[in-house]
Amino acid sequence: MRLGLGALLLGVVVAGPVAAQGADTAMLRRVDSVFAPWSSTLSPGCAVGVDRAGQPLLRRAYGMANLETGTPWTMETLSESGSVAKQFTAAGIVLLARDGVLSLEDDISRWIPEVRGIGKKITIRQALTHTSGLPDRYTLHEVMGRPAGETDHANGEVLDVVSHLRELNFDPGEDYLYSNTGFIVAATILERASGKPLEAFTDARIFKPLGMTNTRWREDHRVVVPGRAAAYSGTLARGFRNDHPFTRVIGSGGLLTTVDDFLKWQDALLAGAEPWGAVRDSLERVGRLNDGTELTYGLGVNVDRWRGVRRVAHTGSTGGYRAALARFPEQQTAVALLCNLGSIEPGGVAQRVATIVLGNALAAVEPEPQAVAMDSAALAALAGAYHAPRTEEVMVLQVRNGQLVDSTANNAALIPIAGDRFKYRGSGRMLMVVSPARRIGMANGDGAPMLRLGVPNARAVDFVAMPRPRPDPAALAAYAGEYRSPELDASFRLAVRTDTLRLLRGWQPPIPLRPLYQDGFVAGDAGIIRFLRDGRNRVTGFVLWAGRVRHLRFERAQP
Q1: Which among 114, 298, 308, 428 could disulfide-bond with 363, CB atoms 3.0 to 4.6 Å apart, if both were Cys?
Q2: In contact, 424 and 445? CB cutoff 8 Å
Q3: What share of the chain is helix, strand, coil (3-state, %, to 5)?
Q4: How would DSSP label each residue in 236-247?
Q5: Among 95, 250, 98, 126, which residue's Cα sits nearest to residue 188?
Q6: Is residue 67 a contact partner of residue 279, using CB atoms and an 8 Å limit?
Q7: Residue 127: which residues within 8 A CB-CB, separation 6 or more?
Q8: Residues of the chain with confidence (pLDDT) below 70
């Protein structure tokens, strides 16, 4: 590929075919402006493509695929898809179901008898719709002291961890919580049911039939792959660092591909010829919880309406790789994005491109609701720490500049839309006061307020206000000791150092535990710990909440 002298002098890289089949100059300029921050010979970048009715509308590439070799992005650059790969694992399962080899309603233990110790029936469909209750493998590895990025994992190791689990995040079908573990389980079932490795099966049944000749699974991250983009973290100002996925786990992610191959897949699903129309319909059938709640997640894809149009999409991130893939069936349009810088938010970037190419098909952006007036005393009464008994989550509300803010949700501002209801600014999350806002332990209060958090795509979560913690040195000393998770064979040691309870993990720096409420502490990035007591008020263990892992139990060792 030749770069014009002007582009080199300006430090701007725009590579690949500029337009195709109807993209006008104004549209291209608007798309280029989206990627302007990464259109440089000094920055990692992206490739983006849009198809309409099965024909290319635009193809653009920006920035560098490899900073060390000075290789720019092109439309032939291979990159990693992250979780966009989930739909290909799901499609493989759907094809086997069409063959009559398995059923999506099969108990996963039919194919993986090692997991029978869990004691709950989990269907393949539940594994693919994140309703299985299986804790996420990334967090489990972190708890075990084997975090991704520092330790090389394989599917077999993940399966071994799952085989030792005895408690799920929730009963299967009772809730929705994103879990990579479910797709590793599904990939294992695909291999056992078909008698073929994931790579061989998907290549024969999906990639080759669709002409996706540049698509393959990253079965071993050490293999040399010509034309692959490197992955980076950091910024131009601070400098970039290599951020290569250090793992052999595939099925939940780990697919290497190009924008063109992504769009071949999308075009086949939009066209709907046999068998892809039936596969598409299966993938787009959204899940339901046991109580009938309909989700917006199908089999490896999100299905929703955005600005008035139907959208089927997914994003992905692994190491410094970022990806997004979306189709808009009513407009017969597909958008594909691959990037190699971790700070790029792929969903937002792809949405900006979709806004440009869909144009007048999109409805106007709905404005945030008008805030109702609330006096400062009412807001102050809601401030404090809240605990969710069902999930072990914690919510901390604060009043800042006359506004209620959730500091545990990236300091999201809460817009009061009624005396007892708030909307999270910029999202569909809603918070409702379901009992009077009287703080426990206050002279004028005879009960704790309870808040109900409504989150799209999941059950509502009830939070109860907790008393302010007042740990003295003697109280902190009562928590010190060794704690062990029998399921993970992982141990934590807690000790009081300089009047602070700290989590000690070998050579790593101690993690100070910050008290949130009585017996509840924030343990830095490790999560939230709630200590357990027996009938004699002795500390017997704790449960850990760490996002995609809920109430993981640790037992206290005898002194």
Answers
A1: 308
A2: no
A3: 25, 30, 45
A4: TTTEEEE-----
A5: 250
A6: no
A7: 108, 134, 182, 183, 185, 186
A8: 1-22, 436-448, 559
> At residue 270, what is the residue type?
L
Q: Which secondary structure element, helix H or strand E, spans residue 19, and what is its range? A: none
Both tokens assigned to 360: 């007048």
pLDDT of residue 14: 53
Other beta carbons less than 10 A from residue 81's beta carbon: 30
Is residue 252 within 8 Å of 187, Cβ to Cβ? yes
Q: Which of 508, 401, 364, 390 is nearest to 455 (CA)?
A: 390
Q: How many CA atoms lie within 13 A of 100 on its CB side?
A: 0
Closest by alpha carbon to 270, among 514, 53, 500, 554?
A: 53
Q: How far apart are CA 468 and CA 386, in angstroms?
A: 10
Cβ-Cβ contacts under 8 Å for 464 (sequence gap 6 or more): 386, 387, 388, 389, 448, 449, 450
Q: At 99, is the secondary structure helix, strand, or coil?
A: coil
The per-residue pLDDT for range 337-359, each reduced to its tens digit, is 999 999 999 999 999 999 999 99
Q: Render pLDDT for 109-124 as a digit per residue (tens, 0 to 9).
A: 999 999 999 999 999 9
User: Cα–Cα distance between 335 and 340 in angstroms, integer?
Assistant: 17
Beta strand spans in 71-139 (E): 71-72, 79-80
Query: Residues, the chain, total?
Result: 559
* End-to-end Cα, the chain, rounded Å: 68
The pLDDT of residue 182 is 98
What span, in angstroms and rounded, lies between the C-alpha atoms of 554 and 551?
9
Nearest alpha carbon to residue 21 among 49, 52, 48, 47? 52
Q: HEC string of 125-157? A: HHHHCCCCCCCCHHHHHHHCCCCECCECCCHHH
Tokens read off for 425: 């600014």
pLDDT for the residue 16: 43
What's residue 57's pLDDT?
97
